[in-house]
Amino acid sequence: MALLEVKSLNVCYNGIQALWDVSFSVEAGTITALVGSNSSGKSTTMNTVAGLLKPASGSILFQGEAVTTLNAYQRVEKGICLVPEGRRIFPHLTVKENLEIGSYVRRCRKHMRYSLEWVYELFPRLKERNNQAAGTLSGGEQQMLAIGRGLMSEPTLLMLDEPSIGLAPVIVNLLFDLIVGINSKGVTILMVEQNLQKTLEIAQKVYVLETGKIVVEGRGEELLCCDDIKKAYLGM
Amino acid sequence: MDAIAQVVLAGLIMGGVYALIALGLNLIYGTMRLLNVAHGELIMFGAFAAYWMYTINQLSPLFSLLLVAVGSALFGIFIFFCLFNPLLKRSQSQDMMAANSLLIFFALSIIMQNIAVFFWGANLRSYTYMSKVIHLAGVPVTANRLLSFAIGVVLCLGCYLLIQKTLVGKAIRAVIQDRECCKLMGINVNKIYIISFAISFAMAGVAGVLLSMYYVFSPFMGLPYTVIAFIVVILGGMGNVGGSLLAGFILGLVSSVGTALTSPGLESVISYLIFILVVLFKPKGIFGKGF
Ligand SMILES: Nc1ncnc2c1ncn2[C@@H]1O[C@H](COP(=O)(O)OP(=O)(O)O)[C@@H](O)[C@H]1O
Ligand SMILES: [Mg+2]
After folding, report:
1. pLDDT, tens digit, for every residue of A47-93?
2. CA-angle at A93, arms to A89 and A96, nearest 5°
């Protein structure tokens, strides 16, 4: 049984359909990636899994249990956490307060202190900036904070929507190493990325979205090797 | 010298009340982006409740303060569930929500005014409680004003600590900044709204009790206080709860000094003048956006 199973998702924005019969699954312990051109529906898919959007039809199973009717905050309690596109850190809270908010759910409050230590170990930069307003961090640091904040909820499934966007190449390399590192600690990852080369290298499973439909799926290495697919769908 | 001290003290006392009412208004504005134009009527109800309990049941305002706080908070929760919860579910957009809620709050203010007129009449009222004059370092001040100031400061500090230090307070500030993202943090945003309503209504009711100890009040006293609260919120920054507290004291001081230098009749003119200056030169409030 897969950790996350998404079945025939149809999602509309004010009557305009953005996702058509999207089905995919994420196996426990893997890195799974969702790729596709701009406006292909990647964020819509992620937001629907996180519970910010309600699908017109379809179902979402997490650990075998239907979570389709749960609100976003209830899904965090179940272990689904989305680090949204554009980081969305709380600029006027300090770095530490942002992280504390990350472990707001009841399941995590008790271990807040340990989680903080773990995140600070992962991102020593954040510890140095502990008491600084999050809005004053650099872009890379803000992304680290957004991921750290997500980890504070001790997720079973961590979803990352375009984590590398707007970051310098050096930082991007660091970020991908970190994602692999987090995954090796047992956190399952579902990510959306623009950086295809790197994503195909680290993802075990890749789904390609085009205008709201899944058009290709395969293992990362497979897609990397297959020039036809790379040309047709990924523009590589 | 004494005259100056007296003016400053009067300003601080008024400022405490302003801070309380502005804090409440700003809490609902910050978390939900809704402007409660019935805020002044909550103050009015608090004043009448204290009056009623004191004159009929000889209940000290210090005690009715607690009852009014709890009662107002419950009233806020009741209003939220009856009127705003359905509205939140039905509204397609924030604009629609804001427009409809303004109508609701406006209706609420008219209904509350009329209830007050119906039960208590339209006359100005007041009562005497702890009106003994105390000399504070030579400055004469009535005991009830001093008490009101002390309670106001304690409540302001309490609210400030709640919002700055507790996890719920941090969640409130996070909701003020980005409510969609808060859902992704596992925050039940509706619960934060309810807490905001409860605190906001309670603070307004308490402010009414404090005012009633030394001011006259009537069913129509609400609007000027709504306006003052609004001015303080603009001064301190929309959504900046800590800013409201400071700005409340600042406005209290400035209008006290201003009226002392000119004439008491100009009090509201001075408030509006400050308001216009701030909107012109510091539209984001005197503290910028830090909260
Ligand atoms: N809030 C919204 N309201 C209306 N349409 C939207 C909204 N968000 C996204 N869309 C539309 O849905 C489609 C998919 O968008 P999105 O999921 O953001 O794509 P991606 O993340 O792959 O770039 C696009 O056509 C976009 O215009
Ligand atoms: Mg996107």
Report:
1. 999 999 999 999 999 999 999 999 999 999 999 999 999 999 999 99
2. 90
Q: What is the pLDDT of residue B289?
A: 60
The number of the ligand 1 atom at minimal distance from the alpha carbon of A37 is 22
pLDDT of residue B266: 84
> Domain-by-domain residue ranges, chain A?
1-79+156-236, 87-154
The average pLDDT across B118-144 equals 87
For residue B153, give Cα distances in angstroms to B8, B26, B172, B208. 15, 17, 21, 15
ipTM above 0.85, yes or no: yes
Chain A residues interacting with chain B (CB cutoff of 8 angstroms): 14, 50-52, 71-73, 76-77, 81-82, 84, 88, 90-93, 97, 100-102, 104-105, 108-109, 133, 149, 153
Question: Of the residues A44, A165, A193, which should be mutated to test ligand 1's pocket, given the most ligand atoms within 8 Å of the CB?
Answer: A44
pLDDT at A1: 80
Q: What CATH superfamily is the domain A1-79+156-236?
A: P-loop containing nucleotide triphosphate hydrolases (3.40.50.300)
The pTM score is 0.93
Burial status of residue B212 (CB atoms within 10 A of its CB: 0-12, 13-18, 19 or more): buried
- Residue A78 in contact with ligand 1 by CB distance below 6 A: no
What are the residues of chain B with a beta carbon less than 8 Å away from any beta carbon of chain A?
Answer: 92, 167, 170-171, 173-174, 177-178, 180-189, 289-291
pLDDT the model gives residue A112: 94
Q: How far apart are CA A23 and CA B91, in angstroms?
A: 30
